[in-house]
Design goal:
This protein is α/β, with parallel strands linked by helices. The chain contains 15 helices and ten strands.
Length: 489
């Protein structure tokens, strides 16, 4: 078949964490002919009514103890969206202590596996087939999530038909699973869209949770246990006591408690806004940082207990952390304004005993699954700029890995900023909070990825804005990982 000819023009875009000049390709005529691989013919196909088999009662089921759900459109465009859900606690855990969830879901907002939510319905109306599953275990189940996705893809091919293209997408831990799945299955994953993903991997994210717990113990709650919980109940009790202590400290302006909370937040670059608090003044910023710290403590207690059981010990470490380098100038000014002394607080941390990881456990957690940056399929990540759980700096680590593997050209990273102000009751519509995106931003993300994969339309700022709408921040680049000195050891 004729080989497409392209004319190039340059536009700015954010690629792998940096502003670069991006090629936008437009068609032109050519008489040159070269064969196109059959897979690429399928991927580029414009057929909007691909033949499929209705899986009927087998559209729901269980594979290897993981429940799955498949939802089929009326007319299939040949694309399968394979969804990976986020972290689910293995036992009722803070802050909500909700019952354990083992349902399958086919999109970010599909709460019960029925696909009846507006987001799923919109994607089905556009012709996408949707599939998603639970994992055979809850907790830091990266390996289980990848296996569940691989099994479900095979099941879809068997029951429905072979997709012309498969896009992996997922939220939070599911974002990490999405990328690991794409890196390990380049033969059938044609594009990836990790959202609010823990793409820096387990050691980065659990080390920073340890940083928070360590500082809370040293400065606010000496009774807080950092590792080695005997049970899920003990871990939850530690969170309950520590959270009460943090809340009490935050309200103690005169006694220095507020400054301590701000100082601890500065160690991990905790966001100044959340879905509830817009950070428009000092009070709102303190509330936002308290929320972020309590969220981190939930994973530093209940999440840590599950993880230690999974890998046979404590995988987290702060023995090389240099906390004196963490607090930046504007943060120090804020702490001083709240009545704190940064040097004194740093000295107290320096005097506290550090935590050393169990080497076997630290290696074991990496083997559960981590990104390498060896990207082969077009990958578009999306992250809120103010994420209190999976820090936006995850994207900085991931982009560094992609550059090291000479794969930066396959990675585009999108960031969503919240409105400048919003009320605590209405909350942020997008941009602040963990995985807080609008349905339009999520469907726009898939459109951007689809255009890149099928039509070689490289995502640039103008095109992305038209697809995702308000909130997309083309000029934003996250800073380095807080405490990267620890990871370099």
């Amino acid at each position: 078949m004729p080989t497409p000819c392209f004319r190039a023009r340059f536009l700015s875009a954010t690629v792998a964490g940096g502003a670069v000049a991006a090629l936008v390709l437009t068609g032109c005529s050519s008489n040159t002919s070269t064969p196109v691989p059959s897979r690429q013919k399928d991927v580029r196909s414009s057929d909007s009514n691909v033949k499929m088999t209705d899986c009927a009662s087998q559209c729901t089921g269980e594979i290897n103890r993981a429940k799955y759900t498949i939802k089929l459109p009326q007319n299939w465009n040949g694309s399968l969206l394979l969804y990976s859900h986020g972290y689910r606690f293995a036992a009722p855990a803070p802050p909500s202590f909700a019952p354990v969830d083992t349902t399958a879901q086919v999109s970010s907002t599909d709460s019960d596996g029925t696909g009846s939510d507006p987001l799923s319905q919109k994607l089905l109306a556009e012709g996408y087939a949707l599939a998603g599953s639970s994992y055979k275990s809850n907790g830091w189940a990266v390996r289980d999530g990848v296996q569940a996705d691989e099994d479900l893809h095979n099941q879809f091919v068997k029951l429905v038909g072979k997709p012309r293209r498969t896009y992996a997408w997922g939220d939070s831990l599911g974002g990490l699973i999405t990328e690991v799945l794409a890196e390990t299955n380049p033969d059938w994953v044609d594009g990836a869209a990790p959202m609010c993903g823990a793409v820096a991997g387990p050691n980065y994210n659990f080390d920073v949770a340890l940083d928070v717990a360590f500082a809370v113990k040293a400065l606010i709650d000496p009774s807080l246990k950092l590792t080695g919980y005997a049970s899920a109940d003990e871990a939850a009790r530690n969170w309950t006591a520590a959270s009460a202590a943090v809340l009490k400290a935050a309200a103690d302006v005169k006694g220095g408690g507020t400054a301590k909370v701000l100082f601890i937040a500065s160690l991990v670059n905790a966001p100044t806004a959340t879905a509830t608090y817009d950070g428009h003044d000092l009070t709102s910023q303190v509330k936002a940082r308290v929320e972020a710290l309590l969220t981190a403590l939930a994973f530093g207690t209940s999440g840590r207990y599950e993880l230690e059981q999974r890998v046979g010990g404590n995988p987290s470490d702060n023995s090389h952390a240099d906390y004196a380098k963490r607090t930046e100038g504007n943060e120090a000014t804020l702490i001083t304004t709240a009545g704190g002394n940064v040097a004194s607080l740093e000295q107290r941390l320096a005097a506290a005993p550090r935590v050393t990881a169990d080497a076997n456990a630290r290696t074991a957690i990496e083997k559960l699954g981590d990104t390498t940056g060896a990207i082969t399929a077009p990958t578009v990540t999306m992250h809120t700029e103010q994420d209190p759980l999976v820090l936006v700096q995850n994207e900085s680590v991931f982009s560094d890995r992609a550059r090291a593997k000479q794969a930066a050209g396959k990675l585009v990273q999108l960031y969503v900023a919240p409105p400048k102000t919003y009320s605590e009751t209405a909350k942020a519509p997008y941009g602040a909070g963990h995985c807080n995106f609008s349905d339009g931003q999520r469907t726009g993300l898939i459109d951007v990825l689809d255009n890149w994969v099928r039509h070689s339309v490289y995502p640039v700022s103008t095109g992305v804005a038209s697809k995702l709408g308000a909130g997309v921040d083309a000029l934003y680049t996250p800073g380095p990982w807080p405490g990267d000195e620890q990871q370099q050891q």
